[in-house]
Amino acid sequence: MMLLPRVPPLYPARPEEILRPARRWFIVLTLALALFGNLLPLTGLALALRPDFLALVLLYWCIKEPRYVGVGVAWFFGLLMDVGDATLFGQHALAYAVLAYAAEYFRRRVLRFPLWQQAAQVALLLALCAALVLLVRVVGGAPPPRWTYAVPPLVGALLWPVVSVVLQWPQRPARSTSEL
Amino acid sequence: MRHLPAEPPDFFHRGPTPLTRLAFFGLVSVVLLFADTRYRYLEPLRQVAAVVLYPLQQAAQIPGAALAQVGAHFAAQRALVDENAQLKRKLVEQGAAAQGFASERQENERLRALLDLKGGAAAGATMVEVLYSGRDPFTQKLFVGKGEEGVVKPGAAVIDAEGVVGQVTRVYPHMAEVTLITDKDHAVPVKVERSGVRSVLFGAGTGNLPQLRFMAPNADIEIGDTLVTSGIDGTYPPGLAVARVASLERDTGQVFARITARPLAGVDRGRYLMVLGETASPPPRPEEPAETDAARKPGRGKARRP
């Protein structure tokens, strides 16, 4: 029993559990990984299903650590995304900035619910983000996209519980011996 | 009675409110969007960000490449032998064609010299590898590496074994962006190979076939006709296969026929492409008479990207 490292459990934190503050390098690392996920060279079905990982992780940190990640950070990562996708400069930046603001506005409400109910609200927030990109492009003269454009926000919402558990994992205290 | 401190403790300092920040960054975004769509001032900024992003983009290639390598490792010997035989057969076939081509080219050059025509053949070509297809659902783009020599220039035509794929529209320090012929903002000057009728093939966006617009209903064109580049624009060298006419609606009630064409090149597949060198630029356009120039309003109307 002594040899086993005390790793935190892989299920959502209970409300009474007090999480440690997230480390900055961990936040930066996860955001970089999300950007990496968005840059993966996918095609076909995988591309149609791929959620916007960066929006999802930004949303998580905006809700959980609003002191570190807010509108400005989201905007900056949006610019990087614009360059990675070769889209109009400022399109993702604008969408992510609004997403971060919405997250900051709704964060207390979102946090009150269990994870799967949070996911429903996250779906709306991600859809808002996608809708802003759509609005910018349609105003810019692009043809409306196919219906599959609505799929990634839903996939993102389905991933929300997983993302929440994984991202809060390092902040959780190790399981105390009394629980075992 | 105790005095409250004039300044709140440090803990409460959070800078401007989220709404203020949103207003600021939102405004900057809108300015950026406007500057990018209207004036394209931001290319240097884009270049800088591209350099920052480059290591991550390269890293993102690794999983796919590793998977492909594992797949290749387990490819059946039988399949490889078959493919090898097929490639050899193709090489012989094309070798025969190429021998004929050399003499025909000489002959063509002599004839052109006799007729005093300007040549339009491409100067050279660079092989490039597709890094990834564009993820923007609103445009049709590809990213390619710059090849060995790294001499890819904006505006160069990009082809594969079957036909025209698109055109280089942006060049970053380590890669280049290719706009496909199916992109909504892309147009290729073409002619019908069979009849020589000239037209322009306009991309129609994701999931739609490119269209030949502004063709009279009685134009000499049929389903299955091959469209080749006419070389009139000076961007695409003449004679490259582009597309095959897929549907044709001649409604005499309409001013123009409704024609769509299916690209011949693997616009959405294939891994290796050729970037053609610069074509001989045509002589400058003759100046238009002054009065018509003054009558036209310059700068009005939507500018089409190259």
Report what the structure shows.
The complex is a heterodimer of chains A (180) and B (306). With 180 residues, chain A is mainly α. Chain A has helices spanning 24-39, 44-49, 53-64, 71-85, 91-111, 115-139, 151-168. Chain A contains seven helices and no strands. In chain A, helix 4 (71-85) crosses helix 5. Chain B is α+β, with helices and mostly antiparallel strands and 306 residues long. Chain B folds into two domains: 17-84, no CATH class; 122-280, Rod shape-determining protein MreC, domain 2 (Thrombin, subunit H), CATH 2.40.10. Chain B contains four helices and twelve strands. Chain B starts with 17 loop residues before the first helix and ends in an 11-residue tail after the last helix. Classes of the chains: A mainly alpha (180), B alpha+beta (306). The interface between A and B is large, with 46 and 51 residues.
Nutshell version of this structure?
The complex is a heterodimer of chains A (180) and B (306). Chain A is mainly α.
Secondary structure blueprint with pairings:
The complex is a heterodimer of chains A (180) and B (306).
Chain A: H1 24-39, H2 44-49, H3 53-64, H4 71-85, H5 91-111, H6 115-139, H7 151-168
Helix pairs in contact in A: 1-3, 1-4, 3-5, 3-7, 4-5, 5-6, 6-7
Chain B: H1 18-38, H2 43-73, H3 77-115, E1 125-133, E2 141-145, E3 157-159, E4 164-171, E5 175-180, E6 187-192, E7 198-202, E8 211-212, E9 226-229, E10 241-249, E11 258-263, E12 272-276, H4 290-295
Antiparallel strand pairs in B: 1-2, 1-12, 2-5, 3-4, 3-12, 4-5, 6-7, 6-9, 7-8, 8-11, 9-10, 10-11
